[in-house]
Specification:
The strands form six sheets. Strands 2-1-9-10-11-8-3 form a seven-stranded antiparallel beta sheet. Strands 13-23-15-19-20-21 form a six-stranded antiparallel beta sheet, with no helix packed on it. 30% of the residues are buried. The chain folds into two domains: 145 residues, Elongation Factor Tu (Ef-tu), domain 3 (Beta Barrel); 131 residues, Jelly Rolls (Sandwich), CATH 2.60.120. By secondary structure, it is mostly beta strands. The chain contains three helices and 24 strands. Strand 5 and strand 6 form a beta hairpin. The chain starts with a helix and ends with a strand. 9% of the residues lie in helices and 39% in strands.
Length: 311
């Protein structure tokens, strides 16, 4: 999922309206609150595996296929909502609130929920838009009871935590291009207690699916590089960032912007990989060359933003 600040801000606001389990919030409408006219009868699609896109190909002149990489497709979430009113006015008001929240042709909004056993049981959300809505007018309807079914389309199959986390680091060694240690060595060598290492960002994804981080690289730095220290995969930018300049790197959309607006295509060569955060701990190293060997060369920084993700 793309780490859209406005989407996550809306999800954090909605999370305050979901204090207990078995509750949902969408576009300001809270479903499942005690003594509410709206209750959840069923939710489908949150624990299901979304549709799958495969890249298998037929094996020529032999039996079977050649397996390729599998990718998850979009997720569909279906809600069955029981709308009840003690009289016509109360019923009409509750039904109007439902139809307004689940109106078609509206942009994505966070569907915030809290269910035991789903995505760790905490407050989570998916980015969703309405694709179908059904409200039968029948005998139950005449008694001020409507069973509303809503189908929501989630372009990203990921279920995510509404809290955006961030961490940053300067270059590994402000006195050496690319960081590291410098000879000559003098013996005896002394080693102190372990500590946080400059030039390393530690990212903890508490979920079960990969998360797509956003990186910000601030100058001054020449040819900055981000390295996954476990896998060795890296992302290098052949560019010189001066003081006050920065790059925004979105690993989900594969966009690179200079100073937040100007697109840049700065990832040549087959060795570059759009980095992700696997479940658990990931360490990203920040490497690069100083623009100036003196104080004017200080200030380069890598910042990583991420969230925990589930499928």
């Amino acid at each position: 999922m793309q780490l859209d600040p406005e989407l996550f801000a809306a999800a954090r606001r909605a999370a305050a309206d979901v204090p207990a389990e078995w509750m949902i919030e969408y576009r300001g409408l809270v479903i499942g609150a005690p003594d509410s006219a709206l209750s959840l009868a069923a939710v489908d699609g949150l624990l299901d595996i979304p549709g799958m896109r495969t890249s298998d190909r037929a094996a020529l002149s032999r039996h079977g296929d050649v397996s390729g990489t599998d990718y998850l497709g979009a997720r569909t979430v279906s809600l069955t909502i029981e709308v009840y009113g003690r009289d016509a006015a109360e019923f009409s008001a509750a039904l109007d609130a439902v139809t307004a929240a689940f109106a078609p042709a509206a942009p994505d909004a966070p569907l915030v929920f809290r269910f035991p056993g789903i995505a760790g049981g905490g407050v989570r959300f998916v980015s969703a838009r309405v694709r179908k809505r059904g409200i039968p007018v029948n005998v139950e309807y005449s008694n001020y009871l409507a069973m509303v079914t809503v189908e929501l389309y989630c372009a990203s199959p990921l279920i995510v935590d509404p809290i955006l986390l961030d961490a940053g680091t300067p270059l590994a060694d402000p006195n050496a291009a690319g960081g590291g240690i410098k000879p000559p060595f003098r013996f005896p060598l002394k080693f102190g207690p372990p500590r946080n290492v400059a030039g390393v960002v530690r990212v903890l994804n508490a979920g079960t699916a990969v998360s797509y981080p956003k990186f910000i690289i601030r100058g001054p730095v020449v040819d900055p590089q981000i390295i996954n220290l476990r896998t060795g995969q890296s992302l290098t930018f052949r560019y010189t960032l001066l003081r006050g300049e920065w790059l925004d790197i979105d690993t989900y959309t594969h966009e690179v912007l200079l100073n937040g607006t100007a697109p840049r295509f700065l990832t040549p060569g087959p060795g570059n990989v759009w980095l992700t955060c696997a479940p658990g701990l990931t360490e990203f190293g920040f490497r690069g060359f100083r623009v100036d060997s003196g104080p004017a060369g200080d200030g380069a920084e890598l910042v990583c933003e991420w969230t925990s993700s589930w499928v």
